[in-house]
Amino acid sequence: xxxxxxxxxxxxxxxxxxxxxxxxxxxxxRELCDEFNTPFDTMAKVLQAMNQAGWLSSIKGIKGGYVLCxxxxxxxxxxxxxVIEGQENEDVCTKNNGRCELHGTCNIxxxxxxxxxxxxxxxxxxxxNQLLTQExxxxxxxxxxxxxxNGIR
Length: 153
Known about the structure:
two-stranded antiparallel ribbon; mainly alpha; Arc Repressor Mutant, subunit A
């Protein structure tokens, strides 16, 4: 199930902050840490990961920093999660090599797996621009649900 880590939160904070600045204005890790009261080392690593992904450009030196070089409408939330955390969102049923302590007797493995698949599909199409600007006309994907759960359709 979706768990948004602190590093992903810091990335979102940084991207929103940087997108509100004039196009070529640099933002340093220190500036972001001062603005949002975040740990410097973690923020620096998050910025480096986004720089390596090609979303930011970096200028080295005392007056250096980062500038946003990718349109946020071209980056999905799931892409951000992969860049920052290096993984998909896992559900509890697939953690620990697909086994939780209740896996053998659990009756909701399929529903949880289905739910996780739908959440991940949505996050694959939700752009950071939509998320960070609180765009109100986000097109939600529609799914055809096969069968029912306990008689609920």
